[in-house]
Design goal:
Chain lengths: 345, 345
């Protein structure tokens, strides 16, 4: 039965999709099978309902060849490891098993020259690392490997919360959520697929960091809104902003959903403001980066609306105006500094 | 009472020490005091017995000014956080508290624009990040921040082992130990202090990765040998290679110490071989990197021999010849590939 639709979101950003998601996805499924990672029917069915290749083709519409295949393969692998190791499965609440597994995966990513251990995930990560190193600049490969490290660390953090029976505060979640959504490595994968790279100097500049972080939070909120009903059913709301806000404020799920949409739209307005500024001031690679962020944010929503994984039924219409359009910082310590980067007219 | 001396190690590498360790260390202690991190006598006494400024001045003898001060300040902070949060203290066996703390520290490192939360460690890390960003190239700052992430992830992994009551295997430890010894961020700090940077392209090249990893393992083994008696007393041998080898092989502590020295010397011979190769083939920045690795390895040992922290008594003499000088891979999966990088004559 389809779940209740997600409230309409404000998202005036362009969207495109690479046309080859069918064959790319079939190759990714075959790739997973080669590592023995699709051996049971449940996992196979979950991947079918998740459409990772569509996600890849929406967030990297300008990708080509081996690079785009890598985005799709990583995305397939990410969903399988989430569903069978990180978020569910026998070791998801055993940090003493899960974190050492992730540590072994890091070795495969950093040094694919070493043989993989017996774990099929280690073998798959090793394969991705060898392919990335064969085709991409060292700086992108390094960012991608470190992006995986960031993802693993956030998984460790959420597992620790799960075992301790604690919920992150909203302040914590604003930092933790986008890392858990593997946003940094996703950005590197897109660069790897599309072949245009933002330099470290541009990337570390405060306004660029702020606009990128805002995009990453928008993707996180979008994901969390669409997966909320499923994650509430599965009782894993420590990694869902709707659950975190409801835990903080009390009240109904509907009230927490409405607060979440307000936060989404307010961050969207900030994103649009910073984006316009950088579009005027920035180098051509910064402008290219902004286009990638647009596709990431809107592409993720387009995928979320349609994908059977979340069972949210028909597409939510887009809102014409933001639920909260104030151009002022929301009094949330980890992100208020983003608004300081806005030039006041 | 002084503990038994560590067996003699083979280490034919040069050593130098920056002459300003006295004033640099006094400034670091004042810096820690400003953040309220030296409020109790036990911590103050531990830091005095640890001589972090001497370590900094030995591993970065060519450092200058603000950069070298940063190395010393980070080193002081690292020892205090190890002694009061990561390896001992009330949350060292509570991953649900410890990992979220480290996650908040990551935010301070990545985005010093946001106010620090109430934790004094967060405020100190934020201060370091702001200073690093003011004085160093973005690529170095990024590597340093990610080096901290790598360190935190390994602390999470060791905490998980501690709580689960498991020991890492030797295979796991060869990957985990150097990360826990914060080796990557140490390398970035040295670059930051000395002002010469290895490019990502050079850094990701397999031979350069192998020689750097070998240096990092040598530092780890050196540390573990000198801290073994102390860590055996404290019952925290999950992060000590002597304990890991003894757990694998059984037998006496003396036998495990001897095996560890053999591994050290065998890796040292490999290091010398790869080093000679790269000294011939490499760019001037690669050669500069090799000199830094020399100082790191030997400087760490010189400090270990003298520092009251480990109470190992008088200096161990250096061995004239390696305890194991075979130029063949030791059949240890994560590191055997290093020997593949050796040119056969």
């Amino acid at each position: 039965m389809p779940r209740d639709p997600v409230p309409a979101l404000y998202c005036p950003l362009p969207t495109r999709m690479h046309p080859e998601s069918g064959p790319i996805g079939r190759r990714s499924v075959a790739w997973l099978e080669r590592f023995g990672l699709l051996d049971d029917d449940r996992t196979r069915e979950r991947i079918r309902a998740t459409r990772p290749a569509e996600w890849a083709c929406r967030i990297a519409p300008g990708g080509t060849g081996a690079g785009l295949q890598l985005v799709s393969d990583w995305t397939h692998l990410g969903f399988v490891i989430d569903d069978t190791r990180f978020d569910a499965g026998p070791i998801a609440d055993r940090p003493g098993r899960l974190i050492p597994l992730m540590m072994r995966l890091m070795h495969a990513l950093d040094h694919p020259e070493a043989p993989a251990d017996d774990d099929p995930f280690a073998a798959a990560f090793r394969n991705l690392s060898a392919r990335a190193r064969a085709g991409a600049p060292a700086a992108v490969v390094r960012r991608w490997a470190d992006g995986n490290l960031e993802w693993f660390f956030s998984v460790a953090c959420l597992t620790a919360h799960r075992v301790a029976g604690t919920m992150p505060t909203l302040t914590e979640y604003l930092n933790l959520g986008p890392r858990d959504r593997a946003m940094r490595l996703t950005g590197s994968l897109i660069e790897l697929a599309e072949g245009s790279v933002l330099t470290d100097a541009d990337r570390e500049e405060p306004t660029v960091r702020a606009v990128t972080q805002a995009a990453n939070l928008l993707v996180t909120i979008g994901n969390d809104l669409f997966s909320f009903r499923k994650e509430a059913d599965d009782d894993v709301l420590e990694s869902n902003i709707v659950g975190v806000i409801r835990h903080r404020d009390g009240g109904t799920a509907e009230a927490a959903l409405a607060r979440t949409v307000e936060l989404h739209d307010r961050v969207m307005c900030l994103y649009l403001g910073l984006r316009a500024q950088l579009d005027e001031d920035g180098s051509s690679t910064v402008r290219r980066h902004l286009t990638r962020l647009d596709h990431l944010i809107r592409g993720n929503l387009e995928w979320s609306v349609r994908v059977p994984r979340y069972g949210t039924g028909s597409a939510s219409p887009w809102a014409e105006t933001p639920a909260d359009g104030r151009a002022a910082a929301p009094h949330l310590v980890p992100i208020d500094w983003w608004w300081d980067q806005l030039r006041t007219a």
